[in-house]
Specification:
The structure holds 2 protein chains of 2 kinds.
Chain A: H1 2-32, H2 37-47, H3 50-61, H4 66-76, H5 80-87, H6 95-102, H7 109-112, H8 122-150, H9 161-171, H10 177-193, H11 201-206, H12 210-220
Chain B: H1 3-28, H2 35-42, H3 44-58, E1 59-60, E2 63-64, H4 68-81, H5 86-103
Antiparallel strand pairs in B: 1-2
Helix pairs in contact in B: 4-5
The chains are: A mainly alpha, B mainly alpha.
């Protein structure tokens, strides 16, 4: 495991550096809504879920209540339900151990922790998430403490970092017509739901696009390999 | 932000995240995966990442629209398509968005 752990750290490092930038903008946001620096760092250390943290603080910052903020965080993180199911077969051990291992799953894990056989490797998962954790917490600290020196995150274009991060991840996935079709379907499902549902729901619903893969595979004997 | 709100926010987010991340492994952990399951799993990344990109770039709450960040992310997409590293890609996005706002 220690060898794959190190391989996971190496594979996760570029994503961790980009994630650190995002964490810095979260730190600035936390400071702007009046959260003490230590609380922002503590939140990153024990929640470790960027999009949910940003969604919750944005709602508090715009005058929303605690319930609305927590609801937004829950919806934003709802994608971890299907992701947790995806990782479940690769996480052995007792119930508590499995729950604990599930906490290490982040968005990047979907890409860097694959074992090449349709499942996930725990060493790669833990290694890539460990380095991500380090930069997430330290980036938050940098933003929360030195945020006043940085100024407005939007002026620095930091709001473009998060979608660009996921775009880089997505483009790496677009080998083959099936993945492209599913990405397009996921994007369309999400966009169609934006006007009608709270943030987070469109992304959760987009996971249904994965079912397209099943249908095509079953009906026409798709020429592409099932898994990379 | 009051201390009580701060603690409730951190604690609430921590519990919510732990439950959502733990539910799948708790219910289904360690079992062998049938072939149809891996077919779905292999497509989870493109579906979720595509949805995250379009909602982050084009949605503000329930409104759809474009801005300097949209242009930045579009250029970043070209950089990613041409094989740029994730660090290059996010820097292209941030610098483009920042430059457009500075000019505006």
């Amino acid at each position: 495991m220690s060898e794959t752990f190190r391989a996971g750290v190496r594979a996760g490092l570029p994503f961790a550096i980009a994630g650190g930038l995002l964490a810095t903008s979260f730190g600035v946001l936390a400071r702007d809504v009046g959260m003490p620096a230590w609380a922002a760092v503590l939140m990153s250390a024990i929640v470790f879920a960027g999009s949910a943290q940003i969604a919750a603080l944005t709602i508090l910052g715009s005058g929303g209540g605690l319930g609305a903020a927590l609801g937004a965080a829950a919806l934003m993180n709802s994608r971890f339900l299907p992701m947790g199911i995806a990782f479940a077969p690769s996480l052995p051990g007792g119930p508590l151990s499995r729950v604990a291992q599930g906490q290490t799953v982040v968005d990047v894990s979907l890409v860097v922790a694959r074992d090449g056989e349709g499942g996930y490797d725990r060493g790669l998962l833990f290694g890539s998430s460990a380095i991500q954790y380090v930069t997430w917490v330290s980036g938050t600290a940098a933003g929360a403490v030195a945020g006043s020196l940085l100024g407005d995150p939007e002026k620095l274009g930091l709001d473009a970092v998060y979608p660009a991060f996921f775009l880089a991840l997505m483009i790496g996935e677009l080998r083959g017509g099936r993945a492209k079709g599913v990405a397009a379907a996921g994007a369309l499902i999400a966009l169609a739901l934006v006007p009608f549902t709270p943030p987070g729901v469109p992304v959760l619903a987009a996971s249904l696009a994965t079912l397209i893969g099943l249908v095509r595979r079953g009906s026409e004997g798709d020429a592409e390999p099932a898994a990379p | 932000m009051s201390a009580a709100t701060t603690w409730a926010l951190i604690g609430g987010c921590a519990v919510i995240t732990a439950v959502l991340k733990g539910a799948g492994p708790l219910a289904l952990g360690g079992r062998a995966l049938p072939p149809w399951f891996s077919a779905i799993v292999a497509l989870m990344a493109p579906a979720l990442f595509a949805a995250l990109v379009v909602t982050q770039v084009l949605a503000d709450g329930r409104d759809l629209g474009v801005g300097a960040d949209t242009a930045g992310v579009a250029l970043a997409g070209i950089a990613a398509w041409r094989g740029g590293s994730v660090i290059t890609v996010v820097c292209v996005a941030a610098i483009t968005a920042a430059a457009l706002r500075a000019l505006a």
